[in-house]
Amino acid sequence: MRLFRADPAAPHHTGNPSALTSFVDEVYATLSGLFAYAAVLALFVVLGNYLWKQLPDATATTAPAAVGWSPAGRSAPAFAISKLDPRDKTETYEIFRHPEGGRKDVFRWTDTDGAPAAELEIYRPGGEAMGPAVTEIAGRLVPGGTGELEAAGIVDSKFGSATLLRPARQDGGRACLGFLKQADAPDLRISGWTCQGTGLPAQRAAIVCMLNRLTLLAAGNDPRLAALFAHAELRRTDCVTSGGPALSADWVMGSQNPLLRGAL
Predict the structure, then answer these.
(1) Is CB count within 10 Å lower at the N or C end of the chain?
(2) Residue 258: pLDDT above 50?
(3) Whole-structure pTM value
(4) Which of 174, 234, 164 is nearest to 206 (CA)?
(5) Cα 97 to chain center, whole Å?
(6) How many CA atoms lie less than 13 Å away from 185 in the CB half-sphere?
(7) Buried/exposed code over 43-57 (b: 16+ C-beta within 10 A; e: otherwise)
(8) Whole-angstrom distance, CA of residue 233 vs CA of residue 214
(9) Higher pLDDT among residues 253 and 187, named by residue
(10) Selection from 43-57, 138-152, 212-226 with the highest mean pLDDT
């Protein structure tokens, strides 16, 4: 029998190996580029999302810092000034609130010519930072708020003694007298000024009358405030309209108080 030797099978596929390798490299390069592009795009998306979330927080942080006292037209009056003299000047009553919880009730009076004649402020602080009381009074008493105040004695009212203040330097205009009363329980500050009267005794009497006529309308669920005014009413005296204050004649309550002078 004749034996036949089988020849090696011829390959079914023929081609250039270098061309196949080049094609695979191009596919890998394309996929790598796509992955790199997708990664960069995802990074921008994450970064943009982070900045977008931080924007409201930054706005909420900076906005309250620029907000200060604003009129509270819908707030109910908490205080009143009893009118005992029909010749009283024109009166206005304004309420201001602070975002941190503070409240100011302000009475203002003007004379027949429309010029400011007197002011009374009841300040109940909240969480806001309180400025120096003397500096604030100077800003309301002295035009421009650049003047310096000095002690001008003490007067007695239904709330107790109140410190008197006046400009250290007179500019030749009408003389005005400021006052300050600080209560600790509750935290309450009563301050203001008056230009009524032609001399210091008359202005002292006007301040005492102003404080004695201040009454409470609503305590706002603050029993300490109600107790303060209830106890004060027990000490209230009639206003003195003849010009001189009904005070003791000692050196502390005297009209000049030379030993109490000095810049604050």
Answers:
(1) N
(2) no
(3) 0.65
(4) 164
(5) 7
(6) 4
(7) eeeeeeeeeeeeeee
(8) 10
(9) 187
(10) 212-226
Q: Cα separation of 44 and 215, whole Å?
A: 64
Q: What are phi and psi of 192, to 5 degrees?
A: 165, -160
Supply the DSSP string of the chain, one letter for each residue: ----PPPPPPPS----HHHHHHHHHHHHHHHHHHHHHHHHHHHHHHHHHHHHHHHHHHHHHHHHHH---EE-TTSPP-EEE----TTPPEEEEEEEE-TTS-EEEEEEEE-TTS-EEEEEEEEE--SSPPPPHHHHHHHHHSGGG---EEEEEEEEETTEEEEEEEESS--SS---EEEEEEETTTTEEEEEEE--SSSHHHHHHHHHHHHHTEEES---S-HHHHHHHHHHHTT--PPP-SSS-----STTTSSS-GGG-SB-
Structure confidence at residue 204 as a pLDDT band (50, 70, 90): very high
90 and 108 in contact (C-beta within 8 Å)?
no
Q: Which of 195, 182, 164, 184 is nearest to 261 (CA)?
A: 164
User: For the CA atoms of 61, 62, 68, 73, what is the dihedral angle to 10 degrees?
Assistant: -70
The token pair at 231 is: 């106890």
User: What does the alpha-carbon distance between residue 105 and residue 169 come to, in Å, rounded to a whole number?
Assistant: 29
Q: Where is pLDDT greater, at 260 or 101?
A: 101
**What's the CA gap between 252 and 264, in Å, rounded?**
18
What amino acid is encoded at 27 in this protein? V
By DSSP bridging, strand 149-157 and strand 160-167 are antiparallel
